[in-house]
C-alpha cells in the first residue's frame, strides 16, 4: 500500500512552487527518523520563532549550530570516555544531527545553552519590496499616475 501523496496534478497548474512540493515530500520521509533529542518549535511573535532542544549532558563545545540558505543544522557529539563497566546506561551519549527546513527570509538571531536546553531564536525579515502595498487607482482621464508607495514608508500624522 502506497502512502505517499502524488503532487503531479499540482505541478500542472502551478509555477514556482517546486520547493514547497519538495518540502512536503521530504516531510513524509522524515516521519520514520529517530526523534532524539526532543525539541519544541514555538511561535513567539508575528515574525519570531524559537526552537528549544533538550541536550542534557552536552557542553557548549559539543554542539554546532549552522544555517545554510534554507536549512538550519544542529549537530551534537561528544567523545566517549571509559569510566568503567556500565550496569545500566540511562543517559544517552549518542551523537545527533537535526535538520530544520527554514522558509524564505528566516534567519537565526541567537542560540543559547542554559540548563541543558538549547534555544535558537529565529526571525523572519520580509524585504520591503515584498510587503503589501497600496496601489493608487486612477480614472484613466489624463491623470498622471501617482508613484507607488509602500505603506511602511508613508508618514502618519
Describe, in plain words, how this protein is organized in 3D.
The strands form three sheets. A four-stranded antiparallel β-sheet has the order 1-2-7-6, with no helix packed on it. Strand 3 and strand 4 (71-76) form a beta hairpin. Helix content is 12%, strand content 32%. By secondary structure, it is mainly beta. The mean pLDDT is 79. The radius of gyration is 23 Å and the shape is elongated. It folds into two domains: 1-33; 35-77 and 92-125, Immunoglobulin-like (Sandwich), CATH 2.60.40.790.
The computed structural class is mainly beta
CATH topology of the largest domain: Immunoglobulin-like
Residues in helices, as a percent range: 10-25%
Number of helices: 2
Largest sheet: 4 strands, antiparallel
Order of helices and strands: HHEEEEEEEEE
**What count of domains describes the coordinates?**
2
| Share in β-strands | 25-35%
Distance between the termini: 63 Å
Any guess at the CATH architecture of the largest domain? Sandwich
**Spatial order of strands in the largest sheet:** 1-2-7-6
Mean pLDDT: 79
Amino acid at each position: 500500500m502506497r502512502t505517499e501523496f502524488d503532487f503531479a496534478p499540482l505541478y500542472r497548474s502551478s509555477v514556482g512552487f517546486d520547493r514547497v512540493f519538495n518540502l512536503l515530500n521530504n516531510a513524509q520521509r522524515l516521519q520514520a527518523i529517530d526523534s532524539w533529542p526532543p525539541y519544541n518549535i514555538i511561535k513567539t511573535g508575528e515574525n519570531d520563532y524559537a526552537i528549544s532542544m533538550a541536550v542534557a549532558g552536552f557542553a557548549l563545545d559539543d554542539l554546532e549550530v549552522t544555517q545554510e540558505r534554507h536549512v538550519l543544522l544542529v549537530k551534537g557529539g561528544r567523545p566517549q570516555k571509559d569510566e568503567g563497566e556500565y550496569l545500566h546506561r540511562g543517559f544517552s551519549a549518542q551523537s545527533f544531527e537535526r535538520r530544520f527546513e527554514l522558509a524564505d527570509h528566516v534567519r537565526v538571531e541567537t542560540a543559547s545553552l542554559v540548563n541543558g536546553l538549547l534555544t535558537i531564536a529565529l526571525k523572519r525579515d520580509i524585504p520591503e519590496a515584498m510587503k503589501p502595498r497600496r496601489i493608487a487607482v486612477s480614472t484613466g482621464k489624463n491623470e498622471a499616475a501617482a508613484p507607488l508607495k509602500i505603506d511602511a514608508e508613508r508618514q502618519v500624522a
